[in-house]
Amino acid sequence: MSTKEKSLNFIEQIIEEDLKNGLSQDKLRFRFPPEPNGYLHVGHASSICLNFGLGIDYDAPVNLRFDDTNPAKEEQEFVDAIKKDVEWLGFKWDKEVYASDYFQQLYDWAVEFIKKGKAYVDSQSSEEIAKQKGTPTQAGEDSPYRNRSVEENLDLFERMKNGEFKEGEHILRAKIDMASTNMLMRDPIMYRIINASHHRTGDKWCIYPMYDWAHGESDYVEQISHSFCTLEFLPHRELYDWFLNQVYDENKVRPKQREFARRNLSHTVVSKRKLLQLVQEKHVNGWDDPRMSTISGMRRRGYTAAAIRNFADTIGIAKRDNLIDVSLLEFCVREDLNKITDRVMAVLDPIKLVITNYPEGHEEWLDAENNPEAEEVTYRKVPFSRELYIERDDFLEEANSKYFRLTLGKEVRLKNAYIIKGESVVKDENGNIIEIHVTYDPDSRSGSGSEASKRKVKGTIHWVSIPHAIAAEIRLYDRLFTNENPDGNKEVDFKEFINPDSLKVITGYLEPSLRTAKDGDKFQFQRLGYFAVDKDSTNDKLVFNKTVGLKDTWAKLETK
């Protein structure tokens, strides 16, 4: 790593310094430690890329550890979804482990704490404990149960484990310092009673360790060298180290916690609690709704793993929280899709076009380039006929000289086909155009090599042959929130900023090559944007999600 010609971020500098100070390279081990109480979001993607990226750079193992210490909120569904997300992003873990793997060890250590006078059972209510904990400027008060005898504490703790008490009757607290300036050090809770079945251990346990107790000790059991977490855990580092001090054997690797900044994304929220709220209150259609900032939502929308990895690499690692504009993520998605997607033709706001001098009942199959960015350019056949759909805004009955699409009396080229000239329109009783009549130049077919085919016209528009068109459901997604920082004002409910127009469902018409498209397939609809086949598709009906437009239209809107 140190020989690479690149500037190191501060996380890598920490590792390099530890290696320089004697930590053996083969002792490096990292972990990604999600709690299985929801689906992972784009913020987790950055953490995944950081930890697994370090594993790749340093040729070190990375554990996937589930911090499953609260059975009331955790489910196997979330475990499965997290594993799928990490694999989809392109990473492999060394060991799949769980905090619940260490429940017995954690319990045994807690018993030792009690025997050494470093932990006690507190029988106060949560309200009483909060009150006697003090304030940041005022020391806390000792619990009336702080000086229970070792024997009484051991008895109560075992009975807590055996399920003899109700939730809230007792807790186990570490005995540290009720006057500490760090309120997390004021006799923090180690165990609480939860009468809920655990997704892995079933009903074996009635007490469950708190995150602060389980996390660092799990790192220690697994011999994690560096435990990287977000900035909100900086005050927890002192407690992390205190817990480790009680069990640490100097012949083993001592885990080191260090913190990096969250990278919040504009026009969305990255709180699992708030994402859960959106799901439960049905503002979205599940955790994998393509408007969600979850990895599964982005995958369903058509984002690629490479684009998300590139986004994480681009924003990097920082020491201060900041808000990343979602347009940067969309740029990364657009950049990757441009390289890998085939170009196809689809019309989303159709108006009928009739080529009056094209033979009725005749059709021909024209060559169309799939992807000009590909190393080896390939072609497909698209059908052409007398009646076509074009986009409604590709025609104006009257237009100025700066309008380069179809209008009466002027020529444009139909993509991969012929040059046409606008002749007349058909209107309904309300004066709305329902049909455009044009003529075509039979000698102007693209790629034919004729003089007419080389003739330059200023505009090219896409089209779909009506007799061959496939009707499909098209889901047009916009940003879920109208405010760039919906979570930024604590006085306002973030849901006040939900965009009522974040989803629009229309019927589009596609070229027939898309008939065999399957879930997850991605395409560029020429001149319209990038689209992906949704999992709701059936053999009888295709459903496409708009992934991202060809250009960033929001930048212009927000400038205005």
TrEMBL record:
Alphabetic keyword roster: Aminoacyl-tRNA synthetase, ATP-binding, Cytoplasm, Ligase, Nucleotide-binding, Protein biosynthesis
Quaternary structure and interacting proteins, as annotated: Monomer.
Coiled-coil parts of chain: none
Main subcellular location of this protein, as a coarse class: cytoplasm
Domain Glutamyl/glutaminyl-tRNA synthetase class Ib catalytic, residue spans: 27-338
Listed NCBIfam families: glnS, PRK14703.1
Pfam family, one: tRNA-synt_1c_C
Species: Paenimyroides tangerinum
Binding residues for ATP: E35, P36, N37, T230, V270, S271, K272
Segments forming domain Glutamyl/glutaminyl-tRNA synthetase class Ib anti-codon binding: 342-441
Gene name per UniProt: glnS
GO cellular component: a single term: cytosol
Gene3D superfamilies: HUPs (3.40.50.620), Ribosomal Protein L25, Chain P (2.40.240.10)
UniProt similarity note: Belongs to the class-I aminoacyl-tRNA synthetase family.
HAMAP family with a match to the protein in the record: Gln_tRNA_synth (MF_00126)
Protein's GO biological process: glutaminyl-tRNA aminoacylation; glutamyl-tRNA aminoacylation
Subcellular location: Cytoplasm
Catalytic activity entry: tRNA(Gln) + L-glutamine + ATP = L-glutaminyl-tRNA(Gln) + AMP + diphosphate
tRNA synthetases class I (E and Q) anti-codon binding domain ranges (all copies): 460-534
GO molecular function, one term: ATP binding
InterPro entries given in the database record: aa-tRNA-synth_I_CS, Gln-tRNA-synth, Gln/Glu-tRNA_Ligase, Gln_tRNA_ligase_bac, Glu/Gln-tRNA-synth, Glu/Gln-tRNA-synth_Ib_cat-dom, Glu/Gln-tRNA-synth_Ib_codon-bd, Rbsml_bL25/Gln-tRNA_synth_N
Classification via PANTHER family: GLUTAMATE--TRNA LIGASE, GLUTAMINE-TRNA LIGASE
Residues that, per the record, bind L-glutamine: D67, Y211
Record protein name field: Glutamine--tRNA ligase
UniProt superkingdom: Bacteria
